[in-house]
């Protein structure tokens, strides 16, 4: 990711600042004071910019030694915003930036553990009030900051989706530390005086709508509760925490937001069903099939809609969770059980040559006519050849207990299977893997016709599983905690992940600050196919207890499966990764 720094509108006024992971894990830009700069973050694909949002950033004007001691020096900075924001919050360090409370035995600060990451962090800072007329500040005047405003004063222009902030020497963070500080190289005077943290706030000051805990009091059909005359394209639908709905439609309009606080269960009567929406927000429970009775029909599908850059505030649930568009958020339970496959992947029994329309596998399978399969590459691409030798075909005939397959189209590349002589009486057997991509339960993306440099766009759907707090109990005053849980069994997640952005197909986001629940629920991903991905497959930040077995990851970008150091107690067995590609927006810049 690069940051473009612009002063003016001519081509010569642009410069590109590369991310510096080793030096500061950020960007450094030399500027001339007394100017307004556009410091938007962008990715590049053949020099075509994509807007990329930041959600939380630490900004530092300069070293105090380089800043004038009077109040006349200033720089104005602005950044773009692609997706919805209510306002930008700016917080200045307290005193000299040192922690004002002592850590407890666990190493965490002694503060309210029922708060989110940022709520806990922000107690160490004081807020610089923003400019503007927003909820909580109804008499504010809309204007850009001016040099006479205090350091860190910002304004978010919601009409142009751009944030402006002034950096200067006015009312900066006071410091009691001296330049001869004895605590080593970390000098708080130097690093906190002209520094602030800023975070995009999605919820209004009174907070986002808090979900209620499931308390089912009535069960109805979806078609009764949401008549077709009322629930139309881009409708916002709410399933209350007191209601269970049986989803009985063959297909739905493309709703805008479906918020489930109660229960929605697909009627499992052998018929195909599809639910379409831009945002599916689950605080209660969504059920498609059960472990005892998997989905009986040919197809059960949740299809996500939207286009890149459509700014929308529908998928806002919490100030720590950034969802954007085309999303499923799971703060409750998502339980999806497709028909089990005895084989999710196998190996070639013999080499499949260029132009072949048949192949032979090394074991019996339950592959059937109409299934999509992928054949992994085994050859290095030659000069001038197609570098992508991962191939996807559709089965047209099956024989020999699923070992012999006929398919279309013909293979464009050779896929090896055999024994290789290594010399000195040594050998190794190598075989291309063949993954099965088809499942009868699916999460898909509606890929609108939107060409980028003559090619289809890569703005797929994404799922976020995380945690948040709901309404306070009327008796105890305690807030109900919502922790997302998924059990995806033999589900296809097709065309998921968002290219040129950071959204993976599946993101598990759990907070290490919340010690009131050190373990999140077990997350099960069994026998699934992540097919035709546009970005990462599965990414877990703090999500423990993941069980991922017998899955196929097809055409992942950057990485198929990423766990951070806090994602402990994970089980990964018998998964196939077929093709991991460099992101199209990454260049040698």
Short description:
With 589 residues, this protein is mainly β. It contains three helices and 46 strands. It has three domains: 2-201, no CATH class; 233-340 and 440-473 and 486-570; 345-436, no CATH class.
Which features characterize this protein?
589 residues; 3 helices; mainly beta; 9-stranded parallel sheet; 3 domains; 15-stranded mixed sheet
Tell me what you see in this structure:
3% of the residues lie in helices and 39% in strands. The strands form eight sheets. It has a 15-stranded mixed sheet that branches. A nine-stranded parallel sheet has the order 13-15-17-19-22-36-39-42-45. The protein folds into three domains: 2-201, no CATH class; 233-340 and 440-473 and 486-570; 345-436, no CATH class. The longest helix has 6 residues, at 117-122. The chain is an all-beta fold. The protein contains three helices and 46 strands.
Which class do the helix and strand fractions yield? mainly beta
Total number of β-strand segments? 46
Q: What value does the Rg take, in angstroms?
A: 27 Å
Principal-axes geometry comes out as globular
Largest sheet entry: 15 strands, mixed
Secondary structure tally, helices: 3
Beta-strand residue fraction: 35-45%
Per-chain topology:
Blueprint: E1 2-6, E2 14-18, E3 36-38, E4 41-45, E5 48-52, E6 56-60, E7 74-80, E8 87-93, H1 117-122, E9 125-128, E10 154-157, E11 162-168, H2 188-192, E12 195-201, E13 218-221, H3 222-225, E14 236-239, E15 243-247, E16 254-260, E17 263-266, E18 273-282, E19 285-288, E20 300-304, E21 327-330, E22 333-337, E23 345-347, E24 358-360, E25 372-375, E26 391-399, E27 404-408, E28 417-423, E29 426-431, E30 433-436, E31 441-445, E32 451-452, E33 455-456, E34 462-472, E35 479-483, E36 485-489, E37 492-494, E38 506-509, E39 523-526, E40 529-531, E41 538-541, E42 546-549, E43 552-557, E44 561-563, E45 571-573, E46 576-581
Parallel strand pairs: 3-7, 13-15, 14-16, 15-17, 16-18, 17-19, 18-20, 18-21, 19-22, 20-31, 21-34, 22-36, 31-37, 34-38, 36-39, 37-40, 38-41, 39-42, 40-43, 41-44, 42-45, 43-46
Antiparallel strand pairs: 1-2, 1-4, 4-5, 6-12, 7-11, 8-9, 8-12, 10-11, 23-30, 24-27, 25-26, 25-30, 26-27, 28-29, 32-33, 34-35
